[in-house]
Design a protein that fits this description.
The complex is a heterodimer. Chain A is mainly beta. Chain A is built from two helices and 24 strands. Chain A folds into two domains: about 100 residues, no CATH class; about 200 residues, TolB, C-terminal domain (Neuraminidase, 6 Propeller), CATH 2.120.10.30. In chain B, strands 1-2 form a two-stranded antiparallel sheet. The chains are: A mainly beta, B mainly alpha.
Chain lengths: ~375, ~130
């Protein structure tokens, strides 16, 4: 190869590399302590009242971490561990201490047809075993596609349960059709029944559990502790990851409107806005591949209270988003390069705990 | 420059004739393209270039083309620990994908016959079934 061709190649490579990274600056005022070591994909976790931690590993293991020891919980349903599917999120009932209900989402092969789809189950943990298991929702149909299961579970201040299911790789069929599952966020009562005031209860043939639609693949959802709003983020296509505030009956536009393009670089829509479709509060270009979401509402991190944290799978950092007047005005990299950030929660002690792939769960600390 | 061109051309025509002469391989590659789009493309990208430091390239990858069994094993069971691809070290694990042996064979035939890659020896379901974790 001659010199000219070589330099052209370098130029191309350089362009590619500079495109692939984002420009968010590294925050050097943070550090971490490993709380739970050696996990592979800690998809979801919760703190139990005794401060032990229950962890979902994607491959289908539920781990109880207590006094520095890991125990596998028995009775976990069989999960469809394929592509992005597996054992997903985990949440406690708001009155967990009284009723013991534990909720989790997973990819399930239950029902007709080969493949799997997102399911929501509740159960109680007794003697290290899941008992009184109830399948509350199972999205249909099953498909062998590997992508976009969602899923996150959030309870709001009125005790309603919200969970997300991605569009299962069928962007032209599922997200805009409310008679079909997938590409949706659902609202249920804690026992799995559909609330009588859900937005589509009177719409013919609609899936009555749907709360909003036109979503692609939501893997982050949290209740804003300052105002009770439901905040969500979702994986977009290339350059189109979004943060949205979830409203009843709203259409978030996928795939009719988007700030992203196909992975291959071709366009699938010219529209970034349309009447009747919600605009994101923020979008990421380049995509960071967001997973996990939490607000800092405690006083443990001086100067950071009110900031939103979002995990980046792709660039391996925890994105600290500074919000002002309903906009993301600044982003900084925390835990830069530590690994693919899968899950983020503010623990009962006010500290931020982060699930990182091939590492474990770490506690975020500010440097003194 | 000319000898390289000739080699490249001959490789290319090899590949063309190889897949054309073997309709079974051609079909496997077509099925593999669908698997690739579903399971692999988000990280390894449409052109198989990967992402520096995070996801190794598949196009023109010495690991893929020289370590046939290890590559099949990675697609079949996932991969963790350090690997070296084209002189670069990668330490991001790939979770098990949950593919059937046929899908593993198909996607392997696709990636070893795409972009600048050519592979005359088809990967069969039987070969995949023999690879142990």
């Amino acid at each position: 190869m001659n010199y000219k061709a070589l330099s052209l190649l370098f130029l191309l490579l350089f362009t590619f590399v500079s495109c692939a990274q984002d420009k968010n600056p590294v925050n050097t005022n943070n550090d971490y302590e490993v709380i739970v070591p050696k996990l592979s994909i800690p998809w979801g976790f919760v703190f139990l009242p005794d401060n032990s931690i229950l962890i979902n590993e994607k491959e289908g293991k539920m781990i109880h971490f207590k006094d520095g020891k890991k125990t596998n919980v028995e009775g976990v349903p069989e999960v469809y561990n394929r592509g992005q599917g597996g054992l997903l999120d985990l949440a406690l009932h708001p009155n967990y201490e009284e009723n013991g209900w534990l909720y989790f989402t997973y990819a399930s092969s239950e029902g007709e047809g080969s493949g799997g789809n997102t399911a929501l189950m509740r159960a109680k943990l007794k003697d290290n075993k899941l008992v009184e298991k109830q399948l509350l929702y199972k999205a249909t149909p099953n498909t062998t596609k590997g992508q976009h299961f969602g899923s996150r579970i959030v309870f709001d201040n009125d005790g309603y349960l919200f969970f997300s299911a991605g569009e299962r790789g069928e962007r032209d069929i599922n997200p805009q059709d409310i008679t079909r599952d997938n590409g949706k966020i659902y609202r249920l009562n804690d026992d799995g029944t559909v609330p009588s005031d859900n937005p589509f209860v009177n719409t013919q043939n609609a899936k009555k559990a749907i709360y909003c639609y036109g979503n692609r693949n939501p893997q982050g959802m949290v209740l804003n502790p300052f105002n009770g709003e439901l905040w969500e983020h979702e994986h977009g296509p290339r350059g189109g990851d979004e943060i949205n505030i979830i409203k009843a009956g709203a259409n978030y536009g996928w795939p009719v409107i988007s700030y992203g393009i196909n992975y291959s670089g071709t366009k699938f829509t010219d529209k970034t806005a349309q009447e009747g479709m919600e605009q994101p509060l923020h979008y990421w270009d380049p995509s960071i591949a967001p997973s996990g979401m939490a607000f800092i509402s405690s006083d443990k991190y001086p100067g950071w209270k009110g900031d939103l944290l979002v995990g980046s799978l792709k660039f391996e950092y925890l994105d600290k988003c500074v919000l002002k007047d309903g906009k993301v005005v600044k982003e900084e990299r925390l835990l830069d390069g530590l690994g693919r950030v899968r899950t983020v929660h503010q623990g009962p002690d006010g500290y931020i705990y982060v699930g990182i792939e091939n590492l474990g769960i770490v506690k975020l600390v500010q440097k003194k | 420059m000319y000898p390289i061109l000739i080699i490249l051309l001959s490789l290319w025509s090899c590949n063309e004739s190889n897949t054309k002469q073997n309709p079974e391989l051609q079909k496997s590659i077509e099925r593999g393209a669908v698997v690739y789009e579903d399971f692999c493309m988000q990280c390894h990208l449409p052109e198989g270039k990967g992402v520096p430091k995070a996801f190794p390239p598949l196009d023109d990858s010495d690991y893929l083309m020289k370590k046939r069994n290890e590559s099949i094993k990675a697609v079949k069971y996932g991969l963790s620990g350090k690997i070296t691809v084209n002189g670069q070290t990668y330490n991001t694990a790939m979770a098990p994908l949950g593919l059937t042996d046929e899908e593993v064979a198909d996607v392997m035939n696709y990636i070893t016959n795409s972009w600048s890659n050519t592979n005359a020896k088809m990967i069969t379901v039987e070969e995949v079934s023999k690879i142990q974790p």
